[in-house]
Design goal:
The protein has 558 residues and is α/β, with parallel strands linked by helices. It has four domains: 1-37; 45-179 and 364-407, 3-Layer(aba) Sandwich (D-Maltodextrin-Binding Protein, domain 2), CATH 3.40.190.10; 214-339 and 430-470, D-Maltodextrin-Binding Protein, domain 2; 473-549. The chain is 50% helix and 10% strand. The chain has helices spanning 3-37, 41-44, 63-80, 97-107, 120-126, 186-193, 202-219, 234-248, 264-272, 278-292, 304-312, 326-331, 379-389, 392-403, 435-438, 441-457, 462-472, 474-508, 515-549, and strands at residues 50-56, 85-91, 113-115, 163-164, 169-170, 172-177, 180-185, 224-227, 316-322, 337-340, 366-371, 406-407. The strands form three sheets. Strands 2-1-3-11-6-12 form a six-stranded mixed sheet. A four-stranded mixed sheet has the order 8-9-7-10. Strand 1 (50-56), helix 3 (63-80) and strand 2 form a beta-alpha-beta unit. It is globular and about 75 Å long.
Length: 558
């Protein structure tokens, strides 16, 4: 054999050995992953151990550690009951979670408890309704202030945030609550204004921002009075939503033909009929434009992390964000930080006389919905752990002690800075949504872009600027509404077919069969979904008709 052939044989042998070792390594890794997915070696050697998995996208500081603490306590207490339990936690980055979530559900082997996202139809198809269980007390609340309450009553909003209105079902329960607050660099604020008292009204806030801007010029420092999440337009949306509700909360009683809640088509109908002035809907645009003059130059390109960096560097005085960022903002800052509510419109402001004051936050901001898929391996244990996680003692352990977030439950006491997080409850005025931001995702994005442009350009009449540009994009808005209507109609045809199939199931079942009750219950739930979708189609038709009639600013006959 020539040296060349010998080298080729030797090289081939080396690659074969490498392939063999890779196969062995892959096999070992597979075994390790299977053992891990089954709960670890303790479960492998103890086949009577019951195993469940909880999955979510909350990667913020403290959340995973809090869930780990809850899991350890749960496993300990179940062991005390003579039940061997292993609970696994899986955390998925938020950007990939929706795809992972659907893949898990469609694949038929999802986590036993999942943080919920997606449409009502996904919940209806893949998740177990929890409605039969929420009327009874949470067994893990014994000996606590919530002991005599039903599981539903133990939540701060009586579980309304978890209600799926399309199917009138509770497919999930909520685990935490957040509010939007203003973080203040006290060192910079005191240097620029000479005050320690923080602004509670819009007039005082704007005055403080003006002084901060002047202070930056005098000190030759790049001072930014209000730091924003400009890249995703999150801050603009928060400010607009706040002042829209303060100015238009009364429209909640007049904006819908189906009872409480505003409806864009009905509001536009009232404008076209001369019953409502478009000024009512546009006055918040003036406020946002006025506040926005104190944003940083080039703010549309600044994202959340950049703004936090500028805040910690001492260049930002006020920063608006949710309380989920509170403790990172406070603990990482090299200066004292105070937390206050977004200043409200007051009588000294030109629009203050039209404002209704602070809006209630009771029931709002309750999030972190977790549900149980129909394909769970152990529904009884999954339900028990979900109740454990939302019990008075354990929910505070996870949310308050570890995350420094507010609990979704009642009778929770907060101390220190967390008292500033508590929702406003001493008012009957409720938040309402603007028709410009509630029609659809495209229209919402374009409306936030208009607000951004109004801040940048500072037009003489922000209301006319915004309204006429909204009408300029009317065709795109109509196309979005029409496409959404087609989607609802396709869904209606499918649901109508399901209803027919359920009716046939009742007819073909034995007269004493237990399946009849299930068929009828499912048919009633399906019917509620059909009714809600007919309402949606009706609302969209009205919206398209009235949107087409709107005229340029000041020409709608009112």
């Amino acid at each position: 054999m020539s040296d060349r052939n010998r080298d080729e044989v030797y090289s081939a042998g080396r690659f074969q050995k490498l392939g063999l070792w890779l196969a062995v390594l892959f096999y070992v890794l597979s075994v390790v992953m299977v053992i891990r997915n089954c709960g670890g070696m303790s479960v492998v050697f103890s086949p009577d151990t019951r195993v469940i998995t909880i999955a979510h996208w909350q990667l913020e500081d403290g959340f995973r550690e809090g869930i780990d603490a809850a899991i350890a306590e749960y496993e300990k207490r179940k062991a005390g009951q003579g039940v061997k339990v292993k609970v696994r936690q899986v955390a998925i980055p938020v950007r990939g979670y929706p795809q992972w979530f659907l893949t898990q559900l469609i694949g038929g082997n999802p986590a036993d408890i999942l943080e919920v996202t997606g449409s009502s139809d996904i919940l209806n198809q893949y998740f177990t309704p929890l409605s039969p269980y929420i009327g009874s007390p949470n067994p893990w609340n014994k000996g606590t202030p919530l002991e005599k309450m039903s599981w539903r009553e133990s939540f701060a909003d009586d579980m309304l945030s978890a209600l799926d209105t399309a199917y009138s079902e509770f497919f999930s329960v909520c685990t935490f609550m957040h509010t939007t607050r203003l973080y203040v660099n006290m060192k910079l604020y005191e240097e620029a204004t000479g005050k320690t008292e923080l602004p509670d009204t819009l007039t005082d806030w704007l005055d403080a921002c003006r002084k901060l801007k002047e202070y930056g010029v005098k000190q030759n420092r790049p001072i930014i009075p209000i730091g924003v999440r400009g890249f995703d337009k999150g801050t603009i949306g928060q400010i607009f939503g706040t002042y829209y509700s303060e100015l238009c909360t009364d429209l909640s009683d007049t904006g819908s033909r189906y009872g409480y809640g505003t409806q864009p088509g009905e509001l536009f109908r009232q404008i076209n009929a001369g019953e409502l002035s478009e000024d009512r809907l546009l006055e918040p645009v003036e406020v946002v434009t006025e506040v926005g003059q104190y944003f940083a130059d080039g703010f549309p390109a600044i994202d959340l992390e950049q703004t936090k960096y500028l805040f910690f560097a001492g260049n930002v005085a006020f920063f608006i964000d949710g309380t989920w960022n509170a403790f990172s903002m406070i603990n990482n800052a090299p200066f004292p930080v105070r937390v206050i509510q977004i200043p409200m419109l007051d009588r000294e402001h030109r629009l203050g006389a039209k404002a209704f004051g602070r809006i209630t936050e009771l029931g709002s901001g309750i999030q972190g919905r977790f549900g149980i898929p129909k394909k769970t391996r152990d529904f009884e244990l999954a339900l028990d752990f979900l109740q454990f996680l939302t019990s008075w003692e354990i929910n505070q352990l996870v949310m308050v002690e570890h995350c420094k977030w507010m609990s979704s439950l009642k009778e929770v006491k907060y101390e220190g800075v967390m008292k500033e997080f508590e929702p406003v409850t001493n008012t009957s005025h409720t938040a309402v949504s603007s028709p410009f931001t509630s029609i659809g995702s495209l229209t919402n994005r374009l409306s936030l872009q208009r607000l951004e442009n109004s801040i940048i350009r500072q037009p003489e009449d922000p209301k006319a600027f915004f309204w006429n540009d909204f009408l300029h994009d009317r065709e795109q808005t109509l196309d979005e509404i029409q496409e959404a209507t087609y989607g609802v109609q396709r869904n209606l045809w499918s649901m109508d077919g399901t209803r027919s199939a359920l009716a046939v199931g009742v007819i073909l079942s034995e007269s004493d069969s237990s399946e009849i009750g299930l068929f009828l219950q499912r048919s009633n739930i399906n019917l509620e979904g059909i009714v809600s979708r007919y309402r949606a189609v009706d609302a969209n038709i009205l919206l398209m008709e009235e949107l087409g009639k709107l005229k340029e600013y000041g020409k709608n006959g009112n």
